[in-house]
Write a structure and sequence with these properties.
The structure is a homodimer of 308-residue chains. Chain A contains 13 helices and 16 strands. Chain A has 308 residues and is α/β, with parallel strands linked by helices. The first copy, chain A, has 2 domains: 135 residues, 3-Layer(aba) Sandwich (Rossmann fold); 124 residues, Rossmann fold (3-Layer(aba) Sandwich). In chain A, the strands form 4 sheets. A 7-stranded parallel sheet of chain A has the order 1-16-15-14-2-5-6, sandwiched between helices. A 5-stranded parallel sheet of chain A has the order 8-7-9-10-13, with helices on both faces. In chain A, strands 3-4 form a two-stranded antiparallel sheet. In chain A, helix 7 packs across helix 8. Chain A is elongated and about 65 Å long.
Chain lengths: 308, 308
Amino acid sequence: MSLKVDSRDKAQEIIDKYDYFLFDCDGVIWRGDHILPKVAETLDLLKKNNKTVLFVTNNSTKSRDDYLGKFEKIGISGITKDEVFGSSYASAVYIEKILQLPKDKKVWVLGEAGIEKELQELGYTTIGGTDPRLTADGVTFDPDHELLNNLDKDVGAVIVGLTMNLNYLKLSITMQYLIKDNKSIPFIATNIDSTFPTKDKLLIGAGSIIESVSYASGRKPDAVCGKPNQSMLNAIKADNEGLKASPGKGLMVGDRLNTDMKFGRDGGLDTLLVLTGIETEDRVLAQEKSVAPTYYADKLGDLFEMTQ
Amino acid sequence: MSLKVDSRDKAQEIIDKYDYFLFDCDGVIWRGDHILPKVAETLDLLKKNNKTVLFVTNNSTKSRDDYLGKFEKIGISGITKDEVFGSSYASAVYIEKILQLPKDKKVWVLGEAGIEKELQELGYTTIGGTDPRLTADGVTFDPDHELLNNLDKDVGAVIVGLTMNLNYLKLSITMQYLIKDNKSIPFIATNIDSTFPTKDKLLIGAGSIIESVSYASGRKPDAVCGKPNQSMLNAIKADNEGLKASPGKGLMVGDRLNTDMKFGRDGGLDTLLVLTGIETEDRVLAQEKSVAPTYYADKLGDLFEMTQ
């Protein structure tokens, strides 16, 4: 059963025990554009104690550079690019390193600028994504749209992630690429979170967009690059020898049982679930021992608040 | 194994053998706005031979009245409202007769005017659907949209069907109603076709929209009103005593194995698959005997062409 972080001793024990603190962002660090209480203070405290702090997010709408801007904007300073691992970056790395897609091939993107930027940083050309032609006529679907009728023969991979600029045209073009060439173009999902938490409600998550084109095309994604997939954690371990040698020195902090907690657990890390996202205390306590988080807390900021 | 309709004798045998001819529309009668070859002649021939002709469509974007207009427009005259059974009508009837939703409750619609009209004809108030506030700002999603932040407490059912005016806002509001009140508001799917065939390509079908909100809300539809669900066929049988008494006197003609053919077979009718929609001859011939269509043909118009 998960141990609740509800006293100074328990909070201090966690700070002392781990060297690597990995954080999900949405629902842990912030909700929407609002930083959660005492998060900045908690991160400061950890850094003052020489802890390694890393951010691991499934939200593919932003690139790592975009995330640095977001941290600044909500009042967390001093984060560096190598501390941030997003599913947009993980997906781009997957396409380069695992698929080894030639750089003269293009990638069709159903998603936002984060995916485009990370791919472009690796030298790929993207199509779809934020192309204004896909949203210019957002209200009325045109079955003879130029991008629906003229598929690009150079597309060598399809990436699907979260976009709030979703429409029938984008879904239908994505489906064309997924069924093209006898369904042979690789189908990459940034992550499969069913919902996207904002400050006061749950919205449609990347996984729910992926389900739509998956059902339409009769295909499952060939790879899911976000949590709980271990490829992102392996990349983090490669950069952090101490964590690679002793995963038990790492704590994965998140708000979702089926992504964040599984991600940490599968990688040999201990886990801390915070209740500022989508899970409830009842849900946490109902978990079987084998999958229960190591700890849970009302909020990340309790690590700071309880130790003052 | 399915018998191919490839000669005068076989075509004539079919015309002679059945009294009731039930037709799917998209991919059988028309594709998009184009009537398929010799369809009008085939329907004339059947009517001249005193056959009962009925249209059974999963496309919920139109009401029965709208369908009459569409038949006229593409060159098929004389169709009457009682010859047309659409999934929008079937869904509205389900809400009235099976759910017995009080008339002072409202229905949230993710779909087109067809659903709204059929519900309004039964005395219900619909919200969502074609409300222009849901598409006015089609490009940029507003997380504080009035319809997302102010859920209507009188909504007593959610219907999801096909809409090409799809966006993230509509999906997210639909999800709010599906998770509202501990997920207790009934969730009705017009049909679960994964794709929507147009004249030259497959687009996203109602089922692929339903999958999205289903995955997001963690709910399966409580009812699917279109083919292959038998509620539509039972309604047809109720109006056609001869078919009810002898289902074997009926032939269901369609272009989909998993909806049209299953619909006919489950209801005791013989079946004819036409290759003008989404299936291929290879797929038809690969079916196990227990689920293979009785017949298949290159097109519906062959019944006319081959008997001249």
